[in-house]
Amino acid sequence: MTDTTVRSRRKGQREPYTRLTRPLVREAGVLVPASWEEALTRAAEGFRHGVAERGPDSFGMFSCARSTNELNYLAQKFTRVVIGTNNVDSCNRTCHAPSVAGLSHAFGSGGGTSSYQEVEESDVIVLWGSNAREAHPIFFQHVLRAVRRGARLFVVDPRRTSTAQWAERHLPLNVGTDIPLAYGIAREIIHSGLANEVFIGRGTEGYADYAAAAEPWTLAETERVTGVPAALVTELARAYARADRGQLCWTLGITEHHNGTDNVLSLINLGLLTGHVGRYGSGLNPLRGQNNVQGGGDMGAIPNRLPGFQDILDPEVRASYGQAWGREIQPRYGWNLTQMLDRMERGDITSCYIIGENPVQSEADCLHTVKRLGNLDHLVVQDIFLTKTTQLADVVLPATAAWCETDGTFTNSERRVQRVRAALRPPAGARDDIAILCDLARRLGHDWHYTPEQAWDEMRALAPNHAGISYARLEQLGGIQWPCPSEDSLEPSYLHARLWEQDPERRGRPAPFTVLEHRPPVDRLSEEYPLRLTTGRRLDSYNTGVQSGGFDSPLRRGETLDLHPVDAEALGVAEGEEVLISSRRGAITAPVRLDRGLSPGLAFMTFHFPDEVDVNVITIEATCPVAGTAEYKAAAIRVDRIPAAAPALIS
C-alpha cells in the first residue's frame, strides 16, 4: 500500500492514523485492499440486500458535520430517496441537538438569532457553559472586541476557565444546576421590575405560569442549590435585563446533559423575559463546535427535517420534495443517532453508512458503541483516515478532506453560508465524497451526476430560506446569512423581528415561555464515587484527535485528570502521578494535573487523546429524551492511587 501515515508526537508516538488512499473490504475478518469497482459494488449490494430483507428502516446514515453543505444535502437525499427512510443524523446529536430542539420549540427555527458583528456591538455578553477562548477562539475574538469597547462579560461555568479569566464576573455554578440558576436570575429580574413587559405582552405566551415557577427560587435557595453567591446572581440579572443590547451565548456546558433541551429552554426564557431577541444586538446564540454542524442540520441531515429546516410532518413540504425527487417521503420522523445505535443493539438496524464520523471514540460509554456497531450485518465507512470506526467496517471508502480538498459551502454559527474551495489535490486513490455517493446511487438504480453547485442549486430551489444564496452571490458578497429568500435583497442579520410587530397578523405565533423542572445529574455522587467529572476541549486539539494529533503543538500536554489541590491532597496524589479513574462503567488511568480553577469535588478531562486515555469509557450514556444528547458533562468518579510495582527479586 502507498498510504501516508500521520503520527502524533505527544510523549512519543501514538498508534498511527493512516491516510486512506485505497478502498478496503473485509475478507475472513480482515480488511484488505480492493479496487474501487469491487468496494463500491460490495457496499451497494450490502445496502440492497439489507433493504430487500428487512425494509428501508433497517438502514441508518451518519452524515458528516465537517463536510460541505452539498455533501450533507446529498447524504440525506440518498437516505430518503435511494434507500427510502428518514434515518439520517450526524454528530450534531453529540453536541448541539438540544439547541436546535429548544430554538425550534420557541421560534420555529434552529439557528442562532444574531450575527458576530452584533456581538461586537453588545453592551452585555453572557457566555454560559462556554469556554469560548479555547473551544471557539475565532468567535472569542469578536467577544474581546466588545469587551475592549466597554461591554460587560459574564461567564457562567463550573470552572474558572481561560474564558472566565477575561470576564468581569464569573459565576461558578455546580454542575447540572443551570435551570435553578436561570430561575434565580429570572426571579430577581421580575422582582426588580426589570421584565420587558412590552415584549412579553406582544411576542410571548405562558408568562404567568413561568413567573409562578420561578417564584420559589429565591436568592438564598438559588445560592444553596447552585453554589453561586446571591450577589453575583443579582448583578448578572440586573445587568442583563437593563442592557440595551444583550447577548446570551452557550455551548456544550448547557447541551451535553440528560436534560440538555430543558437547559437551552431555560436560557431562551431569560431572553424572552428581557426582550433580548428579535432586535439588533440582542440575541440567543449556540456556538457550534465543528465547521458545519449548523449546515448539516440546515441541509436536512437530521431525522425530522428536510432541507431549509422544513418539518417532515408537514404534508405540503413532503409533497414538494416528493414531486421534485420522484419518491414519496416517509410521513414520520426517522431515528436520531442515539436511537439508531440503540436499534442496532436490538437488531432493528442491520446496515449503516457512516461518512466522516468516528462514533467509536466520540460516543459516551464508547465500549457500548463498539458492541452495537459489531451487531451490524453491513457497515460502510467513508473517511480520510483509518480510524477506530473504519476498523470495524465491512467496506472502507477513502474520501477527500472537506476543509482543504473539496469545493462547496459551509454554514457557521451565525448562519452565514460561505464558499470553500479545494486548496490541495487529494492523494492519488482518494475520491470526492459527492462522487462516491453518486456512484453508490447509480449502482442502486438512481442516475445521479452532481457537481457541488448542481447539488446546491437543487437544494435552494426546494428550501425557501436559502433560495437567494447562489454561488455567484456568495462570490460577490463573500458570505450570506440565511434566511435569504430572494436574489434581489438581503434580510436583517438577526432573526424573529416579527415578535415585536404590533399587528398580530405580522407577528405570527408567539414565542412560548417554558415551565421547567430541575433534575440533577443521573450519575449520582456517592461514597464510592465522590467526585464529579466534567469534560470539555482544549485549544491545542480537535475532537478525538484524529486530525489534530498528527501535528505538534507547544501547548499540548496530553491527557490529564485535572483536580483541585484540596482534592489531590485528600487523595494523597501529586501532580504528574498516574492514577486510576473509575466510574460505574469502567476505568482508565491518567496523570494528575492541579488546577485551582476547579472547585473542590470537581474534576476535568478532555476527549482529545482516546488512543492513550479513552475518557468516554467512563462517561455516562444518559441522554436527553428530546434531543438524544448524552450527559458528557456529569459523570461520578473515584480516583485511586496505583500501587508502586514491587522491586524484582535478584536470586
Structural class: alpha/beta
Instruction: Tell me, rounded to a whole number, the average pLDDT.
Output: 93
Low-confidence stretches: 1-13
Number of distinct helices: 23
Strand order of the largest sheet: 4-3-17-16-15-5-6
- Mind summarizing the main beta sheet? 7 strands, mixed
Describe the structure using short key phrases.
651 residues, alpha/beta, 17% strand
Description:
- The chain has 651 residues and is an alpha/beta fold.
- It has 23 helices and 27 strands.
- The strands form seven sheets. A seven-stranded mixed β-sheet has the order 4-3-17-16-15-5-6. A six-stranded mixed β-sheet has the order 23-25-24-27-22-26. Strands 9-8-7-11-12 form a five-stranded parallel β-sheet.
- Helix 2 runs parallel beside helix 19 (433-443).
- The relative contact order is 0.16.
Give the helix/strand layout.
Blueprint: E1 4-6, E2 17-19, E3 24-27, E4 30-33, H1 36-54, E5 59-62, H2 69-83, E6 88-89, H3 97-107, H4 116-120, E7 124-128, H5 132-135, H6 137-148, E8 152-156, E9 169-171, H7 178-191, H8 197-203, E10 204-205, H9 207-214, H10 219-226, H11 230-242, E11 246-250, H12 252-255, H13 260-274, E12 283-286, H14 293-298, E13 305-306, E14 310-311, H15 315-325, H16 337-346, E15 351-355, H17 359-362, H18 366-374, E16 378-383, E17 395-398, E18 408-411, E19 416-420, H19 433-443, H20 452-462, H21 471-477, E20 480-481, H22 504-507, E21 511-512, E22 531-536, E23 561-563, H23 565-571, E24 578-582, E25 587-594, E26 602-606, E27 635-641
Parallel strand pairs: 5-6, 5-15, 7-8, 7-11, 8-9, 10-21, 11-12, 15-16, 16-17, 22-26, 23-25
Antiparallel strand pairs: 1-2, 3-4, 3-17, 13-14, 18-19, 19-20, 22-27, 24-25, 24-27
Helix pairs in contact: 1-19, 2-19, 2-20, 3-13, 7-10, 7-11, 7-13, 10-11, 16-18
